[in-house]
Amino acid sequence: MLQVTNSSVSSSERSSDSRFVPQLDALGLLRIVYRQWPTILTGVAICFVFAILYLFLAQPKYSASFLIYIDPRQAQSLGKQEISMSGPPDPGIIESQVEILKSESVALTAVRLLEERAKAGGGASEDEGPGLVQRIVSALSFGASSPPPTREEIQHAAAEALLLRLKVKRIGLTYVIEASYWARSPEAAAAGAQAIADAYVESEMSAKFQATQKATSWMQERIRELRDQASIADRKLLQYKAQHNIVETGHGLMNEQQLADVNSQLGVARAATAEAKARLERLNALNRGDIVNGSVSDALRSDIITRLRAQYLDYENKQAELITKYGQAHGAVQNLEKQKEQIKRTIEAELDRIGESARSEYEIALARERGTQENLDKLVAQQARTGESQVQLRDLESSAQTYRSIYDTFFQQFEVAVKQQSFPVSDARVVTAPFPPDKPNWPKAIIVLPLGVFAGAFLGFFFALVREFLGNNFRLGDDVINYAGFDCLGILPNLALETNKKRTALGRPGQLGGNNAFVRHSVNAPFSRFTETLRNVKVTIDSNKEQGGAVVVGIVSSVPKEGKTTFSANMALMTAKMGTRTLLIDGDLHNPSLTRTLAPQAQIGSVEVLQGAIPLAGALLRDEESGLEFLPSIVRVRESNIVALLNSGAMVQLLDQARQNYDYIYIDLPPVVPVVDAKAFAHRVDQFVFVIEWGVTTRDVVRDALEGADILRQKVVGGVLNKADPAELKRFEAYKGRYYGSYYVDEN
Ligand SMILES: Nc1ncnc2c1ncn2[C@@H]1O[C@H](COP(=O)(O)OP(=O)(O)O)[C@@H](O)[C@H]1O
Ligand SMILES: [Mg+2]
């Protein structure tokens, strides 16, 4: 008694403070898989079947794809060609093109192209374009009150639908983009893909065109500005030159040239003056008397004077001749003398004229020299003044030059841009064009089936986990400890599943319950797992029992049909078979099924004994094979107060008497939840064994049964899980080793 209390206290303590913690480590998961593989397999099978159904029933999808190559150098923006040539092209360009290909504007263009082609070709694509979308849109618009969608709305919806079917991706790190488009028919897929490819190239071109157009118009504006600026600079330069008398000649500026010229002129003038002066001086110095002298004429270099002198000399010669012939006084001589005088005078007059002209020549030269000198002085002064303005002039000149060169460069670029505008070149090239696929690309068995299996395994495992952790019943020994609060003494297999025979042939005379193989299983199969488990229960009972004394063991369960009666009979038969004095009492006065099973022929029983009608020995039945004594209960009229009967003094007497004659007294009691008997009788019992139906009885029911039955609970030495599925039980015990089960023999 003392030990019983101790043990039950410790087990109830355990239940209160250590709740069941699910074991989710690798081994725990493996065990769950092993235990629950039928569930998992069922999940896999179901999903696999669904996958196959899907393969057969799903509408096929055809997908057509095309490749687009983006020329990375051309793709750089206008005017940056030089930059792009050096260094690797920006990889972002390709990603941007991917996005552009997926853009709504391209999709809209594609929709327009599809429409045009459908009109031209008599509607090749039946489910593409507005047709399908119109249906969707009209389906989405609630009621007839909403206005019919405009053409634009339809096109936008169609573009959206188109984009949903389009997949675009860059291939690796290349400059190639792959786009694919799916539809319900191969032709529609190819047509859609083609439209998208065309739309993309077209929009690329028009974007390029617009960009160049914008650039050209901007450049035009800029060129006009530059031209204005250049001409303003030119005009300023000219004005400045005019203001400052700057004229350019072939050799430089006018001032410098002039200065040089005037300088040389001055030199010439000076030389001329000097010459004229020398001549004049020589003329002045001439001896008038010697005019006929040769040196004078030589000096004068005058032809007239030379001729006159020759004539004079001729006359003189003639005179000398005549003098010698005719003398001084001759008239001819006198005549010649006169002529000579005449020539002399002529020469003198000529000399005067020459002198006069030399003087005037000299004066003129002098005047010219002076004039030139003045000119030079003026120029020198002017030159000093223009030196400063020269600097400004250079400034103006260089700014005019700069504007002009900027203008020139711009103009060249402008020409290039205009050329590009008239021949827009696309950076994108469709490398492989879409063509109608010959087989659908969805559903694919190679993806769908493994996916089905995988999903099934996942689903199955999920349900397995749910069964393991959310199940509200008892399957493991730990469940008993965790949810009932007492030890699990063993798990009894379902005999109906374990031994293929439910009923044996008629029992031999003197054999209790001979017709029911289940109640005699411990005798019939002493080495079975079932019987071994019972022996384990007996070990626990023994360890809690007073040495040498008798023990009263009550067998209870929460609800009927969990197997109390079967358990009690087997337990008692086994104990008796060991040679110990054992009494089995049918204490279920509400439903004496033990009596019905073991001794259907019995006429008298415990009620009669308690009422004092007969002695105990008179009511006992004996099992010849095991030596078990059985006190049946026969309830003819339903006793109104069974509790009173159980608690009567006669009952105390009966148990005392039994304790003296037997070592083990097993009482099959009614279930705890529906009737109060067991609780009321608890104080007369030493130990309770609690039978729980495996996988059926819920934790709540067991908790209900134990609630408010403190005495009973304290005396429970352990629970037994009954009617476990042997197959599952084997999986549960897998960790005990493969040959664990070989120790049991189910048949006798
Ligand atoms: N271990 C078992 N294997 C197979 N059937 C069993 C087992 N235990 C009990 N049963 C069957 O379950 C039913 C109810 O059992 P029973 O012992 O009468 O339960 P209770 O006495 O708790 O109402 C009976 O038909 C019995 O044969
Ligand atoms: Mg019963």
Question: What descriptors fit this protein?
Answer:
4 domains, binds adenosine-5'-diphosphate, 748 residues, rod-shaped, eight-stranded mixed beta sheet, four-stranded antiparallel beta sheet, binds magnesium ion, alpha/beta
Shape: rod-shaped
Fraction of residues in β-strands: 5-15%
Structural class category: alpha/beta
Question: Roughly how many Å is the radius of gyration?
Answer: 70 Å
Number of strand segments? 14
Level-2 CATH architecture of the largest domain: 3-Layer(aba) Sandwich
Work out the count of structural domains: 4
Largest sheet: 8 strands, mixed
Helical region count? 27
What integer is the average pLDDT?
Answer: 83
Strand order of the largest sheet: 7-14-13-8-12-9-11-10
The CATH class of the largest domain: Alpha Beta
Ligand names: adenosine-5'-diphosphate, magnesium ion
CATH superfamily of the largest domain: P-loop containing nucleotide triphosphate hydrolases
> Ends: how far apart?
36 Å
Which segments are poorly predicted (pLDDT under 50) over 5 or more consecutive residues? Answer: 1-21, 76-86, 123-130
Notes on the structure:
With 748 residues, the protein is of the alpha/beta class. The protein has four domains: 26-58 and 443-469, no CATH class; 62-212 and 426-432, no CATH class; 252-422; 471-734, P-loop containing nucleotide triphosphate hydrolases (Rossmann fold, 3-Layer(aba) Sandwich), CATH 3.40.50.300. 60% of the residues lie in helices and 10% in strands. The protein has an eight-stranded mixed β-sheet with strand order 7-14-13-8-12-9-11-10, with helices on both faces. The chain has a four-stranded antiparallel β-sheet with strand order 2-3-1-6. The chain has a two-stranded antiparallel ribbon with strand order 4-5. Helix 2 packs across helix 27 (726-732), helix 5 (104-121) packs across helix 7 (151-164) and helix 17 packs across helix 18 (564-577). The longest helix is centred in the middle third of the chain and has 92 residues, at 331-422. The relative contact order is 0.10. Residues 492, 494-496, 518, 557, 560-566, 593, 722-723 line the site of adenosine-5'-diphosphate.
